[in-house]
Design brief:
single chain; mainly alpha
Length: 209
């Protein structure tokens, strides 16, 4: 049902086939979608998952907890980052890397798909997505150039953006895949938190300005 809403069309059956039909993908494209869905299904206590667990800890319904996750995921520094990662790749493919970077002055490369605080040697999820593209593919060439320029390995947002460009997917496809995949993890987290019966209530300390 969530996939139907995100794709904007009704359907049933295997999830990868539904994405394939909506986006006109061949078998290899559907395999890439399957890989992305598996890799993105859970990722510890990232912001959206933590939001889900907080809501579930209050006794909120499962749909309400999932809505908290979706709202948090929509932020440009979380699930929405693949849009800017795509813009970075497109700029690099046009030979306009420096122009793009000038528009992002003061922003961490993490916000447009490079570097990750948990993966100092590179995001393994991104590697597993990017390896599906031929080494000499223009998107791979653009990604390597950006990584070299920034001194940071690509993260999963660049991996999603690369899939979008390589398969001619809509601009919001990365977010659609991220949200659909992560819902499975959120449901598991919400149920686990609800069973624990514990209320998540962090403390704050006032610091005079």
């Amino acid at each position: 049902m969530v996939a139907n809403a995100l794709l904007g069309r009704p359907g049933g059956g295997v999830l990868t086939a539904r994405f394939g039909a909506a986006w006109g993908l061949d078998g290899r494209g559907e395999d890439d979608i399957r890989r992305a869905l598996v890799l993105l299904s859970d990722h510890e206590l990232n912001p959206s998952t933590f939001a889900v667990r907080i809501a579930a800890s209050t006794g909120a319904s499962l749909p309400a907890a999932l809505l908290c996750g979706l709202a948090t995921l929509s932020g440009p520094r979380h699930g929405g980052a693949s849009a800017l990662a795509r813009a970075a790749l497109e700029a690099a493919m046009r030979g306009e890397t420096e122009t793009f970077l000038a528009t992002q002055e003061g922003q961490s490369p993490y916000g447009f798909g490079y570097g990750h605080p948990l993966y100092l040697d590179g995001d393994p999820r991104s590697r597993l997505l990017l390896e599906r593209l031929p080494h000499d593919h223009p998107v791979r060439h653009a990604q390597r150039g950006l990584s070299a320029r920034l001194g940071q390995a690509a993260n999963v947002d660049t991996g999603l953006a690369a899939l979008e460009l390589a398969h001619g997917l809509p601009r919001d496809a990365g977010f659609t895949l991220f949200a659909t995949a992560r819902l499975a993890g959120w449901i598991a987290h919400a149920r686990e938190q609800a069973r624990s019966g514990a209320l998540i209530r962090p403390r704050a300390r006032y610091v005079a300005g």
